[in-house]
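Researcher: Sit down with what I've pasted below and flag anything odd:
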Amino acid sequence: MFNYKNNHTINFIFFVIFIFCLLILKDYGVSQDEYAFRIHGFVTLNYVGNIFLPELTNSFVGEKDIQILDANYQGKSYGAYYSAILGLIEVIFNIEDKYYQFLFRHYINFTIFFSSLIFFYKSLLLITNNKLLSFIGFLILLLTPRIFANSFYNTIDIYFFSIVIFLNYFTIKIFYNWNVKNLIFVSLFTALVIDHRIAGIYFLIQNLFFFIFVLKKKFINKELFLYQLFYLITSLFFVYIFWPYLWSDPLNNFVSAFLEMSRWNYKVYSLLNGIEYISDNLPWFYTFFWITITTPVIYLIFFLSGIFYLSFELKKTFDTKSQNLISNFYFLSIIIGHIFVILIMKPNLYNGWRHFYYLYPSIVIISVYGIKNLLNKNNFLKIITYLVLICNFIILINWKIQNHPNQQVYFNIFADKDIKNKFDMDYWSLSYKEQLLNIIKNERKNKIKIYNLSESKVFYSLFSLKKIDREKFIIVNSPEEADYIITNYYFFDNYKKKVFKKILDFEKFSDIRVDKNVISSVFKN
């Protein structure tokens, strides 16, 4: 019998889920950002190696053309310690083929993601002191389709998502158990968040304010100031340690990186509600709209109920300094603070709300607070809430099985109809892996000419295949010379639109669908 109060039972369930996810990991393709992120890591690794072990570094680099990490390097605003560490492991274990290089990164990325879910469970346990509610929160996060799919291959946004969870866990732990050890962990993860994405400096600022609010009755002003100063200095120290670009000139290089990020001008087209937008000129509601149409509806309802109940607890929080309420308001502040950041800063965003996935754990925390209050109302509402949750989990699991491994194209009922023509679908061409394998399975030729009709590059998708399969494909520059034309329907320029009209006369070889919506197709010449 399932006993959620038993730690061994919970740990066993975590273990089973983790192993199951590792078994299906190979089904997922390689995303468009992974190649550049890997190169970025080796640029940093080369820089560090030339400082500490120049001869050994040069022997590994050989004649490879690796860019220099300096003020002229585009991408200096992205911290690269994660990718550099992955690159170092890749070198140590001599992982040579691209297929295994990216597969290895997927295993590491998912392991970090799943570890963060366990810390998310522990965060909820601190706040609710209820293992069942904490496990429900864990399942909500795990079973959200887009988050789940991205956890395997999104080494930028999901890694950031994960370390923000680690940071939030140690932050709220300080609310319950103030000590220097916890503060050092908060400082470490604050730095790791900032070093991975400079926008993470938001958490440093919010934590400084919340520590004042939480601790001002525990310490006299002088002690509080010293602890604040300790947190700030240790955080900045760790920022410096884990961001090699800062080593030569910490202040100026940090400012340079910050300015590069704030002026990031790489432009990408996005399709939202049937309208084409460019990434530096998006409507104010862009992120909020994407969250609304890609999050399971019941979670949105629980989130709104959580805000509703918290609004009645605001005065009580100031009067009682309840750690549980303070923790909930901490996560609510993360959401509200970022609403202002989005509206004021108007960041350059690409393809949905993946840049803000790290806000989702805070949304789930507030949702769990709403669930908790609904369960405490009366027996009838308690039964209804449990039934809704169970039905929702069953529906989501069934949906994920039916649409495996393309859960990244999940939309809820708010997205309305004709989704393919209204929104970005498989913009990273993750479904290409299945399409390419299907071509190999049905094609007798040793060399297969393929034309890619998309803004994304099939060059990256080929790394999701083993070398023997990858080498069968030759990428050509026109549909006329191709044996097969592959498309994920993600294109915006007039030339590609004209080509698309032309290939409609070709024989349709295969479609991949999600909820009856075609997300990628192959045409045979």
Q: What stands out?
A: Residues 389 and 395 are 10 Å apart (CA to CA). The longest strand covers residues 507-514. The chain has a mean pLDDT of 93. The chain has two domains: 30-375, 429-524.
